[in-house]
Amino acid sequence: MKLIVQIPCFNEADTLAATLADLPNAIPGIDTIETLIVDDGSSDGTVEVARRLGVTHIVRHRRNRGLAKTFSTALQASLRLGADVIVNTDGDNQYYGGDIPALVAPILDGRADLVVGDRQTSSIDEFSPLKRLLQRLGSHAVRHFSGLDIPDAVSGFRAISREAALKINIVSNFSYTIEMLLQAGDKRIATTSVPVRTNPKTRDSRLFRSIPHFISRSLATLFRIYAMYKPLRVFLAAGLAITAIGSAPMLRFLVYALNGDSEGHIQSLVIGSALLTVGVLVLALGVTADLIRNNRILLEQSLLALREMDLRLAAMEAKATPRAQQERLQAALTEWPAADKRNANQSNERQDRMAGDDQPAAAAARTVSAQAKSA
């Protein structure tokens, strides 16, 4: 059982050492623990620090791609490296690495495939009352849309089984936390949460500039991903709402018409007709989006099969490479005496040919010498 702790990094040279020092050296049920750093275009020497600290695997982005893309890169790299369990933590040492055994325990016990660390934000001194309130409201919204009872939806301290990681496809450019939970709920991935501890704050977040910016980006991500996975529900609600609004002026015009006073109220008929038309179009878009969703499901199933095939081939190559090297070495050792004998024979033959070529020249030299003596 191999565990890979992946750490997305962007200019984390100052905190990486403390983050790595927190990681456990051994966990019951885990045979191998490795570390993976994905450097997202850092300019402060993060990679050099990682090498000096003995990080097992290092992957680099030539330019900054953002947290979501970096997490996706780390996830795919961990899978190709043969991870059975993947733990994601931050490079700023926000999460206490000593809680990793508790984080992976539900996966090792077979109770879950995705475990989210609950920071228990109500007890964190750095969180203001407003931030705590927003965190509770955001987690409640994610819980409502995903169907998962996760109290800390935006926590990045997570453990993922190999089976769950193969099914996750991050498409957001902002953050992976909300999208992963929505996908887990839609794909029926067994998900749970465990309480974890945090370390003192080392720096401000680089993911967002301010709380309003974070809220707007998170709401946009929540809406986009939910609409992608539940399009019929979203468009049905929007279409029915627009149709209901359009029905009001239509009913108003109908009431006046029944009372014989329809003149001067034609605007209600126009507005109502337009809104009803838009409502029907939105409902039609919902049906079309639902058909596209079914096609996306088929594509994701194909992608899952391709990933599994690719990982099996990579595992076979990893196993075959040492064996092939050993076979080539054995063949070389077996061939060595015969090759050495052939080389010796070829050398003797060359010497014989050279000697044969020298005989006429030697005879000619002796004849010239004899003639000189006679003279």
UniProtKB/TrEMBL annotation:
Parts of the chain that traverse the membrane: 234-258, 270-292
GO function term, MF aspect, one: transferase activity
Keyword Transferase applies: yes
InterPro entries assigned to the protein according to its UniProt record, in alphabetical order: Glyco_trans_2-like (IPR001173), Glycosyltransferase_2 (IPR050256), Nucleotide-diphossugar_trans (IPR029044)
Pfam family for this entry, one: Glycos_transf_2
Region (Disordered): 334-375
Residues annotated as domain Glycosyltransferase 2-like: 6-165
Sequence ranges of Basic and acidic residues compositional bias: 338-356
Keywords: Membrane, Transferase, Transmembrane, Transmembrane helix
Biased composition (Low complexity): 361-375
Name of the protein in question: N-glycosyltransferase
UniProt source species: Hartmannibacter diazotrophicus
The organism's taxonomic lineage, starting at the top: Bacteria, Pseudomonadati, Pseudomonadota, Alphaproteobacteria, Hyphomicrobiales
